[in-house]
């Protein structure tokens, strides 16, 4: 199961990279129209930081130090910097899961989340849905901002190797 979780998260991180590149102008990543709380740039920084922390640092011991406040307050970060952070998240997720087996799923996650002790299986499932949720927000943000109505989601075919 751990390899399936790895495959889904890596696929979604690659889809995140593709989604950001689909913006015709990187300044549009930072647009926040009325009724929207976060820009695509903000959500991308948040996804990368979230996975580097919860998977890389806490499960993989990478030493990554999260600055969640900056994930939501930084603005106009160049796409090249965001891409570098996503690449770091891809590396952290890939390498962490490469050194894990399914036994970790039955353990308690190393830190409380929201004041609650959770099993690792449950929390990793949450991280998958959390990542997918924000990836969907970015897709709709791009469509809203650019007027380009073409899908940007992750291809299901990338999961074929995981089965």
- State the end-to-end CA separation: 10 Å
Oligomer: single chain
The profile of the biggest β sheet is: none
Structural class: mainly alpha
Task: Report Rg.
Answer: 16 Å
CATH architectural category: Up-down Bundle
Overall average residue pLDDT = 93
| Percentage of residues in DSSP E strands | under 5%
Portion in helices: 55-70%
According to CATH, what is the class? Answer: Mainly Alpha
Can you say what the CATH homologous superfamily is?
A: dinb family like domain
CATH topology: Four Helix Bundle (Hemerythrin (Met), subunit A)
Q: Helix and strand succession? A: HHHHH
Helices, by number, come to 5
Overall 3D shape: globular
- Would you identify the regions where 5 or more consecutive residues have pLDDT less than 50? none
Folded structure, characterized:
The chain has 163 residues and is mainly alpha-helical. Helix content is 58%, strand content 0%. Helix 1 runs parallel beside helix 5 and helix 2 packs antiparallel against helix 5. The longest helix has 27 residues. The N and C termini lie close together (10 Å). The model has no long low-confidence stretch (mean pLDDT 93).
Protein topology:
Elements: H1 2-21, H2 40-60, H3 68-73, H4 79-98, H5 120-146
Helix pairs in contact: 1-4, 1-5, 2-4, 2-5
Can you tag this structure with a few keywords?
163 residues; mainly alpha; Four Helix Bundle (Hemerythrin (Met), subunit A); 5 helices; 0% strand
In short:
The chain is mainly alpha-helical and 163 residues long.
């Amino acid at each position: 199961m751990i390899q399936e979780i790895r495959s889904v998260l890596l696929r979604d991180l690659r889809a995140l990279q593709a989604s950001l590149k689909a913006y015709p102008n990187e300044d549009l990543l930072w647009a926040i129209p009325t009724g929207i709380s976060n820009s695509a740039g903000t959500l991308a920084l948040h996804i990368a930081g979230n996975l580097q922390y919860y998977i890389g640092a806490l499960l993989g011991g990478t030493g990554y130090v999260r600055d969640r406040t900056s994930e939501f307050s930084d603005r106009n970060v160049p796409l090249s910097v965001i891409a570098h952070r996503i690449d770091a998240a891809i590396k952290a997720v890939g390498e962490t899961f490469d050194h894990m087996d399914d036994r970790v799923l039955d353990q308690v996650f190393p830190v409380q989340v929201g004041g609650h002790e959770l099993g690792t299986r449950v929390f990793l499932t949450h991280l998958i849905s959390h990542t997918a949720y924000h990836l969907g927000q970015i897709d709709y943000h791009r469509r809203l901002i650019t007027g380009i109505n073409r899908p940007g989601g992750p291809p299901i075919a990338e999961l074929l190797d995981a089965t």
